[in-house]
Amino acid sequence: MFETLSERLGGVFDRLTKQGALSEDDVRTALREVRVALLEADVSLPVARQFIKAVEKKATGASVTKSVTPGQQVVKIVHDELIAVLAGEGDPGSLRIDTPPAPILMVGLQGGGKTTTTAKLAKRLKERQNKKVLMASLDVNRPAAMEQLAILGTQIGVDTLPIVKGEDPVSIAKRAKTQAGLGGYDVYMLDTAGRLSIDEELMAQVEAVRDVVTPRETLLVVDGLTGQDAVHTAENFDTRIGISGVVLTRMDGDGRGGAALSMRAITGKPIRFVGLGEKMDALETFEPDRVAGRILG
Ligand code: GDP
């Protein structure tokens, strides 16, 4: 995640910090290079523009250029601005699941990593917060997806709602809700069906499920490798369903990370977790300060 960007920015800032005295023009030239690096990392144009504008405003003042360590000050301003562009409110990894049984709705396109992430998150809640979790698959069109969740459940020691053939998604959601209450579960997670692209049927189905359970969290799971498309998908789901956060998957394969940098600025929704592999432990919270530190090396 972010290797390419980190390398590019490292080069720019190395030169800047080694230079000693800096004129406003030096700073502007460096920021132009930062802008190119951001665009090459697939950060959306308006976000890159706004970012550079904000940094330039703070970094070209006399207090910076006339300071003893101007280069380092510019790096610090970029660091703080990165955090500002990434951060949502509160702790990204803490989910609103205080009143049991708390429903978590998992939404997204097919192949984005929804089922895998549902299981990863369930495992995390079980192991780190000692929560009793029930998972249910609503993907009635793909029996293999329902089986997949059941298999993952067995693997991680988390219960799944028994599969009943012929049931529709809303009925499954109702059954999960009842079962979660009766069974003393803290959390129940609904793995909704995905499709290859956003269509009316998918959205109507997710909406109907949402209205039945009133989720405490609605997490969009989206493939980070798809870059700007991931951001558009999030905009679409948020407009129609309302999401409380994003999980970006396959970030283990993404050296650019542009989707991660544009997501919050464009959709207004924070990235809560990132998927970093296929294994059940390969899920990390997305901490803006740590991410900014990683990008700036
Ligand atoms: P769904 O259709 O959205 O439910 O997608 P799946 O959960 O079935 O995931 C599709 C494929 O992506 C599977 O082979 C997963 O193992 C893989 N996958 C999911 N998340 C990640 C991730 O963070 N990194 C990598 N490398 N693969 C992932």
UniProtKB/TrEMBL annotation:
Gene Ontology biological-process annotations: SRP-dependent cotranslational protein targeting to membrane
Q: Which reaction does it catalyse?
A: GTP + H2O = GDP + phosphate + H(+)
The first-level EC class reads: hydrolase
Domain of life, per UniProt, equals Bacteria
Q: What does this protein do?
A: Involved in targeting and insertion of nascent membrane proteins into the cytoplasmic membrane. Binds to the hydrophobic signal sequence of the ribosome-nascent chain (RNC) as it emerges from the ribosomes. The SRP-RNC complex is then targeted to the cytoplasmic membrane where it interacts with the SRP receptor FtsY. Interaction with FtsY leads to the transfer of the RNC complex to the Sec translocase for insertion into the membrane, the hydrolysis of GTP by both Ffh and FtsY, and the dissociation of the SRP-FtsY complex into the individual components.
- What GO cellular-component annotations does this UniProt entry give? plasma membrane; signal recognition particle
- Family as reported in the entry's similarity comment: Belongs to the GTP-binding SRP family. SRP54 subfamily.
One annotated GO molecular function: 7S RNA binding
The UniProt entry lists the main location of this chain as: membrane
Cellular compartment(s): Cell inner membrane; Cytoplasm
E.C. number, please?
3.6.5.4
This one is known as Signal recognition particle protein
Can you tell me which residues bind GTP?
Answer: 108-115, 191-195, 249-252
Domains: entry comment: Composed of three domains: the N-terminal N domain, which is responsible for interactions with the ribosome, the central G domain, which binds GTP, and the C-terminal M domain, which binds the RNA and the signal sequence of the RNC.
Q: Which organism is it from?
A: Salipiger pallidus
Assembly: Part of the signal recognition particle protein translocation system, which is composed of SRP and FtsY. SRP is a ribonucleoprotein composed of Ffh and a 4.5S RNA molecule.
Membrane disposition: Peripheral membrane protein
**Gene name, Swiss-Prot/TrEMBL:** ffh
